[in-house]
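question for whoever is on the cluster today: can someone run the full assembly for these? two chains, 806 residues total. i dont have access anymore since they changed the login thing
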Amino acid sequence: MTALPLSGVRVVDLTRILSGPFCSMLLGDLGADVVKIEAPGGDPVRQQGHDVGGLSWYFAAFNRNKKSIELNLRDPKGIAVLERLLSDADILTENFRPGVLEGMGLTAARLREINPGLIVVSVNGYGSTGPYADRPAFDFIAQAMSGYMATNGTPETGPLRTAPPITDLVAGLYAALAAVSALRSRENGGPVQRVEASMMMSMLSMMAYLSSNALATGRDPVPTGNDHPIASPYGLFRAADGDIAVAPSTEVIVRRFLREIGLEHLLSDPRFENNEARLANRADLNAMINEALAGGTQDDWIARLNRAGVPCGRVQSMTEALADPQVAAQEMVLRIPHEGRGEIAMTGFPMKFSETPLHVHHPVPELGADGRASLLDAGLSDAEIDALIEQGILGPGTRGDGG
Amino acid sequence: MTALPLSGVRVVDLTRILSGPFCSMLLGDLGADVVKIEAPGGDPVRQQGHDVGGLSWYFAAFNRNKKSIELNLRDPKGIAVLERLLSDADILTENFRPGVLEGMGLTAARLREINPGLIVVSVNGYGSTGPYADRPAFDFIAQAMSGYMATNGTPETGPLRTAPPITDLVAGLYAALAAVSALRSRENGGPVQRVEASMMMSMLSMMAYLSSNALATGRDPVPTGNDHPIASPYGLFRAADGDIAVAPSTEVIVRRFLREIGLEHLLSDPRFENNEARLANRADLNAMINEALAGGTQDDWIARLNRAGVPCGRVQSMTEALADPQVAAQEMVLRIPHEGRGEIAMTGFPMKFSETPLHVHHPVPELGADGRASLLDAGLSDAEIDALIEQGILGPGTRGDGG
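^ ran it for u. tokens below:
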């Protein structure tokens, strides 16, 4: 098996739920050896989402390429086991509320003692300093506070939450980038450091022209739904059998679009001759476009317009998107055989590497299944591990087939 | 000045508009030396967004920490200059349509000849293979095709585009993570490789439980707007002076929430005793919660509920979010003095590094301003540079104060 970009990197993962597990999964996808430490009973996400044969596919989608140890960190013996694992790690990932790690005795000073090379990666709600540092975090709240929700929706709906837990995911992605960058730096003689990303600030950084224009003008953007605030034609239009999204980004492409649908003559009509005029007469223009498109199917128009260089596509439902031929060509739905759980489907790897393609090198772990192997590896004996299981420090799922 | 995580890394950047420039800016923020090659006239985003004193703050927000060379790559002499820059680079970033780079003569074989260590980073719409590889890309279309739009909105709105160009940004972030990972791998003896991320596949990978559940059940999610599909109470509620978002994630936190607002007794009412019952009677429950909250202000409730461990927060507009005290504490609005352009405001760095804090080490570049310095650095003479300006290969903005 070819080495992956992070092969040989050891991650001890204390994260749970979503933002942190996404970060540690990205590190695992990139080839790191990720040991997920789960509290007794396991990550709550094991109980969320649709259950297939006893396994949550939602959990599976965020915890592939990880090992699992079920370990009671409320007991000092559990902390001692964790410290053994940390002594040999490159990276510790955590998404507790700021201060919780320190409360477990794992202060910066203690971590330095255990392992002076350890990079600590934190994902949290609002950042570890500032007036909201101690607040409990949640995606919906970070969407609301970052200004994102106020831009999503229409004037009729008002501020609208978006369904995917986008602030968790963007923060997890930033945290992974920070982690790999800090690792690369340390490996090149740079300092050992603590890195973090928060859900609210990560989302704020994604507001693009909405934040730039607000900073420049002091005015808030108006939510415009599917109408582009400053471009026409743009949006959803109706072909014979369903909607298509069309986004002509320049005058040249507007001309190509109108030419393909037989409306090029409108560009010599004063009501439509330039973008400003078209914005003023958007409703009329859209009606004419819908009428023109009614003569063809989605597939016809999409093929034809794309050939002419007009960005457009079908509005796909989730299941349609997952069945899309391009999604198949990009191997973006994985079907992973799993011992005891049948075949598990999940979305694939959006990062493509020409020489070291990412793949599932460790299946979704059963709770605690890698405890014995990982702890033997960390230098514990089978007898010590058996005693820890006996004492309830290691969970009952700790595989008993070692020694 | 302390070295940053990517100090010493050289990036030649052919990207324009948004997805690619976000990727190369992240590399620049992390400390890489990024030379942005702009076609004559410059990146089109220089003309987009609100203009302050002749500068687009939208452009500024995606092009800090880069140098600029205005170079005509339609002329073989321009390509020759580019090849000089590439011969000494670690990373080439590009977001052309697949095949365009090769069309410029920069095939994989030629790039290997010029620089056998060069990592090529591509951001594109749909991936460089598969039936849609050649289609023009645009955020709105990637939102539609990835299944994302169909989950955003409410049953009344139907599929709804979100305002921030989220597919550009997520793809740019993935591409940066892939780039740093490939670099780290190469520096550790791994292969030199080409990496890429596409807008549609990056967005598809962010659908979380929406895609997991669709794969598990074959059914599409229903857009639910601000109501959580499977949790109640949850959503926006009305305090005396405005809305607050409340997201109690467990039964324990639901109890804390209802206790704080004086409604704990509802939990012994069969209509509200568990989540299932509350979902069935959501409208009644929400009305009672709104009535209870009407007695206090947003600030009162938010302070009180957060203290009780209930995730909640204000729904902030863009300008409110930018003025938030936590945003200030996290230094998430930067005000950068700029020679000739006054002070430029932009959002800051969501990645926090304890030992090497990110900062603006190169201001937003004027078009072509770094051409002379960068090319002298690459070994060209002042006379050669003057000749290239004379021939129109280098733009008129190329700083004339060398030699």
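summary bc i know u wont read the tokens: Chain A has a mean pLDDT of 95. The longest strand of chain A covers residues 33-38.
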